[in-house]
Amino acid sequence: MRVGDRLQVLDTITLVKRPTRLAREGEDSVLLMGFVCNQDTARAAAPISLRVGQAPDTSTIPVGNAQPMAVTLTADSTGTLRVAVPDYFVRWEIVSPTSIPTTQYRGVTRPAISIIADLGTDRPTNNDTTSSSGTATAYLRVVPSGLPPSGAFADSIVSVRVRATARTRPDSVVRSPVEFVVRLRRVTSLPTSGALTGTGCGR
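RE: above sequence
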């Protein structure tokens, strides 16, 4: 853009092929994440594998407060080849449950379950941008204090269904929208030592 005798670069526009396929990264459409009640006092953290429970009822599951989900956006190319579509918006939507409680988190009212695009930013959003390889990674963020041990979210496992879509026009989406089911499990007891600390979610 030129203003008078000055040339100013305001932004960069990337030209990409029209996307034609959105696919899940990895084979698992059903993911499991355990959470502890007071883990939301720390930053958003991807889950790590921990052995939880008390003997003889123990199991090893991912425990954290932000479950990653990844998709890849591609376009048709020559023959059967496909090409990555970078710098493109992917929309993430929590399909169910349709009603999510809110809670006070660091002085801000936040949903107890939401989508964030980045662990460092930790801010609810519905959009993410694909990388140079065409991949977009979002996280299902859980603020455990907003999931009370009674009421609609009292079950030991809460299933959350998330859908990822990409649009070619306001009224048209790329075929094959991707869905994930994240099964959230309340962790009632933690190991005596480990990377995560918390009081557990005993009732």
